[in-house]
Design goal:
Blueprint (H helix, E strand, L loop, with lengths): L1 H26 L4 H108 L1 H19 L5 E6 L5 E6 L8 E5 L3 H9 L3 H26 L9 E4 L3 H10 L1 H9 L2 E4 L1 H77 L7 H13 L11
Parallel strand pairs: 3-4, 4-5
Antiparallel strand pairs: 1-2, 2-3
Helix pairs in contact: 1-2, 3-8, 4-5
Length: 386
């Protein structure tokens, strides 16, 4: 900045000198003093020109130094920018690669979800068809009854052993019950009949005003009362079945509606000894029946075990008597052997005495006496006494 001001001052001085010279030339040679002043001014102008040249050289050096410094700074800046650009490019590349991987993974997951959704849609379509088929079945009274019987058969067959029940069993009054559970007496066999009052229940659910609701409740009550009466009269046979029976409702919703809003019907079923059950409560009841059957089998097995234990005790007693007899036989045999040993010892002693006898002149008489002694009979019972 100072150099620039110096250059500007020198240039201004040169312009002033040139202006003065021009003025002197115009005035002419008349004024000597003015000429001297012009010469002095020219000398000053020469000094200024020399100073300007020196300043020019200094400025050139500084400009060269600044150019080199600027070149170095530009190189450093270029290198720094290049490094930063490389880092940014690498980060962008890595980020793009990660984004691409994540995008590919997301697309894969999305494809899987879409496949699951497609499969679910197919299942929903199939389920819709099945629901429509089920609705067709439930709309038909005969098919609805068969549906309840099949559900009853599945529940009973899954819990009880085959020997504990019979389907479509005929009773002594000629009636056929959907399922007869063979319980031991008491209480005896108990019948289960499937009932499904669906029309009256749907009418009750679909009622939009008080009159329709009253009408639907009356129809539902009438249907349930009829089912309770039919089961009591048909499937409770004195002396053949238990004094109660089960009415199976294949729908939890109908069962819940009955217990929630028709307590008087439940009380009526209790008085008629017709127990109303749903699929859930029937499972609990059948599990209880299975426990009762198991207990009855255990009691029967306990009786058989007791009889066999009694027989086993009789055999042990006989075995003990026979062991005592065998011990007596062994004791008698031991005594007989001991007596035989004593007799054998005495016989050997007498034989030795006979062997030691001295033969004399009366040898014949002695021999005869010995032979007579040996020939004399002796009872066996006398052997132990000598």
């Amino acid at each position: 900045m100072e150099t620039s001001l110096l250059i500007i001052g020198v240039v201004a001085a040169l312009l002033a000198a040139v202006t003065a010279v021009a003025a002197v030339a115009i005035v002419g040679r008349r004024d000597r003093q003015a000429r001297q002043a012009a010469e002095t001014r020219i000398a000053q102008l020469g000094d200024a020109a020399a100073a300007l040249a020196a300043a020019q050289r200094e400025i050139g050096g500084r400009l060269s130094q600044m150019a080199e410094q600027n070149a170095a700074e530009r190189a450093e800046l270029t290198r720094s920018l290049q490094e930063r650009l490389d880092g940014v490019s690498k980060r962008m590349g890595d980020s793009l690669e990660q984004s691409s991987s994540k995008t590919a993974a997301s697309l894969g997951e999305l494809r899987k979800h879409l496949d699951v959704i497609d499969h679910a849609q197919k299942n929903i379509a199939e389920l819709t068809g099945q629901v429509i088929g089920l609705q067709d079945i439930l709309d038909n009274k005969q098919a609805r009854g068969a549906f309840g019987e099949v559900q009853l058969q599945d529940l009973v067959g899954a819990i009880l052993p085959p020997s504990a029940y019979a389907f479509q069993a005929q009773l002594g009054n000629g009636r056929r019950v959907d399922c007869l559970v063979r319980l031991p007496r008491p209480p005896g066999p108990i019948g289960i009949d499937s009932k499904f009052p669906l029309e009256s229940y749907h009418a009750l659910r679909a009622a939009r005003d008080e009159a329709a609701e009253k009408r639907a409740r009356r129809e539902f009550r009438t249907a349930i009362q009829k089912h309770i009466t039919d089961i009591r009269e048909r499937y409770i046979v004195a002396g053949e079945t238990a004094d109660s029976a089960l009415m199976f409702l294949p729908s939890e919703a109908v069962y819940a509606e009955l217990h929630a809003n028709f307590a008087d019907l439940v009380e009526l079923s209790y008085r008629a000894r017709v127990w109303i059950v749903s699929p859930t409560t029937l499972m609990a009841t059948l599990n209880t029946v299975r426990a009762v059957l198991k207990d009855a089998r255990m009691r029967e097995a306990a009786g058989v075990i007791q009889a066999q234990v009694q027989r086993l005790l009789d055999d042990v007693r006989r075995l003990d008597d026979r062991v005592d007899a065998l011990k007596r036989h062994h004791a008698q045999a031991e005594k007989d052997l001991k007596d035989i040993g004593i007799s054998t010892t005495k016989i050997i002693g007498r034989a030795e005495k006979i062997e030691d006898l001295q033969l004399d002149d009366d040898a014949d008489e002695t021999t005869e006496a010995v032979e007579d002694a040996l020939a004399a009979p002796r009872p066996v019972s006398a052997l132990p006494g000598g």
